[in-house]
Structure formats: structure tokens, C-alpha cells
Design a protein that fits this description.
The chain has 191 residues and is an alpha+beta fold. It folds into two domains: 101 residues, Glycoprotein, Type 4 Pilin; 73 residues, 2-Layer Sandwich (Dna Ligase, domain 1), CATH 3.30.1490.150. The chain contains six helices and eight strands; from the N terminus they run H-H-E-E-H-E-E-H-E-E-H-H-E-E. The strands form two sheets. It has a four-stranded antiparallel beta sheet with strand order 2-1-3-8. A four-stranded antiparallel beta sheet has the order 4-7-5-6, covered by helices on one side. A hairpin with a 2-residue loop joins strand 5 and strand 6. Helix 1 packs across helix 3. It is globular, with a radius of gyration of 17 Å.
Amino acid sequence: MSAKLTDGEKQILLRLSREAIESAVRGKPLPPLDVESLTPTLRERGASFVTLTIHDELRGCIGALEAYQPLADDVREHAVAAALQDPRFPPVSESELNRIKIEVSRLSAPQELRYTTSEDLLKKLKPHVDGVILKHGPRKATFLPQVWEKLPEPSVFLDQLCHKMGARPDLWRNTKLQVYTYQVEEFHELN
């Protein structure tokens, strides 16, 4: 991740997210993106997650762990996907648009976390700082660092992440998993 986003860049990404969601929910094409007007940081490859909430309750969250397109495009794509394609929720309706709150998380590149035992893993995790990716064979799941607010106990955090991955909650305790961590720059609409 290059330099931190400026307040202006954050506002642009939130505005692009809002425009993309409103267009997609209304069945309209996305407004064209004026790439030339974007800062170099918004044009460089970036990975993001977009989280939608209504009254602090999750309404959709989709993103990418690896950067593969310009950050501005990545945020727009994941804003639309969070609104319409999160399999846990029905698509956002037009009547919900004015209640949706948008949060954008810009991710650093994931780094492998080397550990020896489950106790060592618990010691090496940084609650409220690390986003965590667990991999076991073809299965993979992640929690953004913001999830620590709801699951502050590292063992419970890992139990729930294993469950999200479709595995036994205690898998991390007796099986060596691939573990990666990343950090985010998170910002959200103020309304």
C-alpha cells in the first residue's frame, strides 16, 4: 500500500461507491469514470472491501484480498457486488438506498504469518490491527480487522473464522493452517 489516502481521496472513493450502488440498484449503467481526474494513488492497483450497513447491522460486504486493478475501479466493483451479490443477503432495494451506510477498507498486501503451535499463533496475532486470512486446502476465509470489535478474544475470532471457512471451529487448534495477515485503511460515510 502506498502512502495513506488523503481526506479528499477518501471522499472521492465514498462518492464513487455511492454512485455505483445507486446506479446498479436502479438497473442503470455505472457512470463513466474520469480516470484523468483521479490522483495517482486512486489510479494505482489496490485491493479493497466495501461494507454496507443499515443501523449498524451488516447488509453486504464484498472485496478482494489481492490488488488486480486500479483502486477506484476496485472500490466501485466491490460496492456494486456488496449491494447486489453478497450471497448472505437479498439484493439491496431502491427503498434501502437512503439508509445504507458505506465503509471502504483499503488493504495492504497479505503477509504470511509463520507460527509453530496454536498458542504461538494466538501470541502473534494483533487484535484490532490484523485482518486475518485462513487457508486449509481449497478453503479460505478472511475477517477484516474491524471484526475484532465484535470478536475481541483471539481464540473466538479464529473459531469463527474457521466456521466461516466451512470447517470445524476448532480446526486451527490442532491443524497447521496457512495464515496470512494484512492491515486496512478504513473510512466510512459520516451520515
